[in-house]
Amino acid sequence: MKIILLFTLFLAIGLCFLILSMHMAGFFDLDAIIKRARCVPPPCHGEEITLDRWIKPPTNVTHNMTDEELFWRASLLPQVDKYPYERVPKVAFMFLTRGPLPLSPLWDSFFRGHQGKYSIYVHALPNYRPDFPSTSAFYGRQIPSQVAEWGKMSMCDAERRLLANALLDMANERFVLLSESCIPLYNFSVIYDYLIHSRHSFVGSFDDPGRDGRGRYNPNMVPQVHITQWRKGAQWFEVDRKLAVFLVQDTKYYPKFKEFCKPACYVDEHYFPTMLNIELPQRIANRSVTWVDWSRGGSHPATFGRDDITAAFLKRTVEAKNCVYNDQSTSICFLFARKFAPSALEPLLQFAPILLGFDHYKSNSQT
After folding, report:
1. Confidence label for 119 from pLDDT (cuts 50, 70 and 90)
2. Fewest beta carbons within 10 Å, which of 117, 247, 320, 330?
3. DSSP, residue by residue, 122-176
4. In what helix (H) or strand (E) does residue 290 lie, and over which residues does it extend?
5. Can you give the pLDDT at residue 308?
C-alpha cells in the first residue's frame, strides 16, 4: 500500500507540472525560444540582413579592436568596382597630432555646409582628452590611438591606424594626412573636386643619392628592397581607397622597415614612398599636395606665426607653379600648407572670407 500511495503521489505531481507547463506555453513562443537557442547571429533575433547594414558607416570612431583586428577588417576591399547603390564619395581628413588642434576654428569654417562629403579622424596621444564643442566637425572624432614618435615605425603605425579607421566607412574614397599645423589653401569645393576627380594619388617618391636619401639605406633590406629602389618623400600624403587598403594590409615590407630603418633613417620618409614606387608607381603622381617652406634651412620646414600672415604671403602659397594633374598642366599644385603656429589663427580667420572663398577659382579650374 505504501508503494502504491507513493507512486500515486509522484503521478499527481507529474500531472500538475504537465498542466502548469501547458498553461505557461500560452505566454511564451516556444518556437522562438528554440530558434534563439540554436541561432548564431546574424540573422537571428528577427534581424533582417539588408545592404544598408554593410554600407552604413560606424556611428562613432571608438572601438576595442586591436591593430591586428582593425587592419584585417579594413583590408576587406570590395572586388567589384561598380557599387550597387547610389554612393556619394567622401574625402577622409586624417589629422595626426600630439593633442590639441589649435587651428580647428579655421577648419570648422572650411567644412561648414559640406556634410556628407567628408569624414574626420584624429590620432592624438592616448591620454589626450579633447574638448571640442558639439557644434565642431571634430567633436567625437578621436580614434583609439597609441604613442607615435617622430622618425620611428610607431609614426607609420599611427598613419596606418588612421587609414584603417577611415576605411571602415565605405563612402570614403580619398584619404589625406594632415597635421595640427596644416591649413587649407582653397575652399572645400575646389579641394573636393580636385581630389575626387584625380586619376592619381599624391605621394612624393624620388631617388636622393645623397646622405639623407640613399645614405640611409641598409643592405639588410634585400631582397625586398634594393638600393636602386630606395626612395624618399614627404610624410604628408593623399591616397585613393585602393592604395589605402594596400598600405594597411602590407606585411611584406613592414618587417624590414621596422627592423632596418631607424634614426638616422626616418621611416616615415621612406616606407610608403619606397613600397609604392616598387609595387604601384603608375598610381602615384609623385608629388605632394601640401606646401611647405624649406628656404630657412634646417631639418624642419619654416613655421609661420601671427606676423607672417599677410595677403601677399597667402598669395605666395598658391601662386602659379608647374605641375601636372591628370596628365595636363595646371596652376593648382598645392591644396594645403604647413607649418602654422597657434598664433596664426586670428589673422587666418580674418583672411578666411578670401582664403576659403576664392570666388575667382571655379571647381573645375584645376584643368
Report:
1. very high
2. 320
3. EE--TT------TTSTTTT-BPP-----TTSHHHHHHHHHHHHHHHTSTTEEEEE
4. strand 290-291
5. 94
In a domain, 163, yes or no: yes
Q: Are 235 and 94 in contact (CB under 8 A)?
A: no
Q: Which pTM was predicted?
A: 0.83
Contact 225, 265 (CB under 8 A): no
Burial of residue 261, with CB atoms counted within 10 A of its CB: 0-12 exposed, 13-18 middle, 19 or more buried: buried
Provide the domain count of the chain: 1
pLDDT tens for 154-200 read 999 999 999 999 999 999 999 999 999 999 999 999 999 999 999 99
Task: Determine contact, residues 36/118, Cβ cutoff 8 Å.
Answer: no
Q: Is the residue at 101 inside a domain?
A: yes
| H helix intervals, 87-207 | 104-111, 153-167, 188-196
Cell of residue 234, nine digits: 614627404
Residue where the block lists cell 570590395? 78
Domain hosting 89: range is 51-290
| Amino acid identity, position 349 | L
β-strand partners of 272: none
Query: Residue 58: which pLDDT band, with cuts at 50, 70 and 90?
Result: confident
DSSP secondary structure letters along 323-359: EEETTEEES---SEE--B-GGGHHHHHHHHHHHTT-T
β 183-184/336-337 pair status: antiparallel
User: Which amino acid belongs to residue 56?
Assistant: K
